[in-house]
Amino acid sequence: MPRFLSLILSLGILPMNVVPAQGATDSLAQAREAFRQAYARVDTEREPAPDDEMLRRYPLYPYLEAARIRRALADVAAAPGKTSDETLGAADEHAASFLMHHAGEPVAAGLRGVWLASLAKRRQWTEFLQHAEAGQGAEHADSVLECHALHARVALDRTVGLVPLIAARWLTPRSIPDCQVPFDWLRDQGELTAQLIERRVKLALRENNPGFARQIMAALPEQRAAPLRQWAALLQNPRTQIDALIAAPERQIDAEGLLAGWTRLARTDRDAAIVRYEALVHARNLTPSSVSRYALALALPLSWDRRAESLTYFRRVQPADLDDTGLEWQARAALWAQDWPLVTRSIAAMTDQQRGLARWRYWAGRAAEQTGDTDLAQHLYQSILPDDNFYSMMAAAHLGQALAPHPEKLVRDDVLLRRIERQPAFVRSRELLRLNMRAQAHAEWNYGLGILPDETRPQAIHLARRWGWYDQAVATATQHRVFNAYEVLYPRPYDMEVAAAERFSGVSGELVYGVIRQESLYRSDAVSSAGARGLMQMLPETARRISRQWKRPAPQIQDLFDPRTNVLLGAAYLRELIDRFNGQTIVALAGYNAGPGASARWLPARAIAADIWIENIPYNETRNYVQRILWHQLVFSWLKTGEPQKTSAWLVNIVPQVAPQAEKQLAIQRVAPRAERSASEKQ
């Protein structure tokens, strides 16, 4: 028997196309539990007992093997010099044979990187290159492994054609210590030129990484380093440096560096930039084309703050410098100022693609309506209705029409679904999901999806929905540009919890569901990078505060993964925000996403139309968040009633914050029965 085949059999590696027959899913419960226990013991069990046939034939058994190989490689790395050659050889052989047998499969992806990193750490460069090259360039997806590959070629003196590869890796704005040996080799060959060093310094400066740029520029001749040091100083202390340049107009400065420093000042201290604008233009004798870019750099952050001065600086920007982003913010500033002719001109100057978006067709319609062109306004509003989004809602409101979404029929083929469900990758994906190994489940899902014929892939949306894997159903639908299959993509799996939260807080169930869909896509185990947890993404400290105020038991962190607790406290928090902002649900939603402090800062000094206020939310994420939740609420209401939905209630003004005494009264009303609340609060 060949040695490789013998090793495969000794590891228990089985073909991954062995799948239980339909109807045998329940019979996997015992094997699943055995796998769960064995997988949990991997890090502590150095010499596991032989696995029985049931476990070896379980669809996820290769994941157990991969975990054991990773553990063995970690043991080797943890005891350098203390591991016998025989042990090292066995660990490497096991890894090599496993990766060869499962080449291209998700189970091999993570292990391959671990093994290559282990080989690199042990300076096993010949074997490293052999298997890195066998991966068909996959090492280049990982900058560390790419550096190891370059290091290996230097160590083995395989340097033909190496200079351009290392030079390309050199050109990065961040420090990459794993590439130091290749970089040193490049320098020793006389190929790390001043031009290459300068290019990397500029990359770091453009990425606002002046500290690293200073480290790199130390290798440059003084004449080339001086303007780059000035650029770095402008980024690190823009106000002081710009004052110095105003005071010494004869002083030479890199034009790109000066604009970068000015942009930094404008974004960190708007008022300081306004005070210095004219002096800088005069002192540096800026040309009209240069002045335009400096004006734009100041106009943008002023527009984010909804300051009237933004339009003064937008007027100084030449048309060639206004890309779609600049035109969008000029249009928003014009909306805030109610300058409807400027709104029209800004939209007209956008690219065809941008101008054709529902967002800007809607605002073109609003501008036409405000300037007396009713026919054009009606035409534009009508054109938006089929788009099924926030702007469709608002267009319907201006037309005085109720709006029904335009559902897309996603026909379910149960025979085909059963066939897909039996495919090995989908069997593994479901088992991984049951074991809460979501990252691996997602990888297997995408692997299986890629194997399916194009015409059958949309059926997988139904499959994920049937499994209760709602976030995967939505992700798969988005991948296949299926957006309006509302019956499938807007499930209501937490009706009991949402109904209880509605009774408790007075916030409509449809709005609560809208927040759940946007915050977590129905994942009760979701955890954000900021530590928010559960369906409505509650921060632990916020949840504890809300529970005290609403006289509920203080939740433990784990309680926030319980839908009953999370939805109840999330709805109560949303109610608190609605009360805090005087019943203004739109402002409350913005506060739920960006924090109530941000929402309070964004409140206008005078009443302004809600659609204009939303459009001028400076955070793209928060603006989209509010718009999507309002649309989600409409869809859930339509699915519940089957009737077109009136949206005229959103044609309201956003008003300044209420006085402290009135806010205190609202806090008292927080616990009032829902029936006593005003209609506007229930929106």
From TrEMBL:
GO terms for MF: hydrolase activity, hydrolyzing O-glycosyl compounds
Domain Transglycosylase SLT: 500-604
Lytic transglycosylase superhelical linker domain ranges (all copies): 420-482
UniProt entry keywords in alphabetical sequence: Glycosidase, Hydrolase, Signal
Keyword Zinc-finger: no
Higher taxonomy: Bacteria, Pseudomonadati, Pseudomonadota, Gammaproteobacteria, Steroidobacterales
Top-level lineage group: Bacteria
Organism: Steroidobacter denitrificans
Similarity section: Belongs to the transglycosylase Slt family.
Keyword ATP-binding: no
Record's signal peptide: 1-21
GO CC terms: periplasmic space
EC number: 3.2.1.-
Protein name, per record: Soluble lytic murein transglycosylase
Gene3D superfamilies linked to this entry: 1.10.530.10, Bacterial muramidases, Lytic transglycosylase, superhelical linker domain
One Pfam short name: SLT_L
